[in-house]
Design a protein that fits this description.
Glutaredoxin; 35% helix; five-stranded mixed β-sheet; alpha/beta; 25% strand; 5 strands
């Protein structure tokens, strides 16, 4: 399930919530066919994917890069737990199963 993030406050709240449970962030480009294909493939992911559309929310995308230490790419997926990166992938390396595994491997009951 995708949940769009449209404000810095929403992003900060999501990242803060990673202290309690892992969170997944997906950076999507509305102008990239690869991003559309990856987004479609992630539609079966059972975890909530906090989506940032990079064309309209560049400041959020930049903030994720700043906080995670992972250079921006799109499409890009990250799983954060307690503010630390558990999983990071871009383009065709993004996998819904790996996102689910990263969240499940944290040991936190959701």
């Amino acid at each position: 399930m995708f949940r769009k993030l449209i404000s810095l406050e929403e992003l900060e709240a999501v990242i803060a919530s990673s202290s309690e449970r892992p969170v997944a962030i997906f950076k999507h480009s509305n102008s990239c066919p690869i991003s559309f294909g990856v987004r479609d493939a992630l539609s079966d992911c059972t975890e909530t994917l906090h989506e940032i559309v990079v064309q309209t929310e560049r400041d959020l995308s930049n903030r994720v890069a700043e906080l995670s230490g992972i250079n921006h790419e799109s499409p890009q997926a990250l799983v954060l737990f307690d503010g630390k990166v558990l999983y990071s992938a871009s383009h065709y390396d993004i996998s819904g199963a790996e996102i689910e595994n990263a969240i499940g491997s944290s040991g936190v009951n959701r």
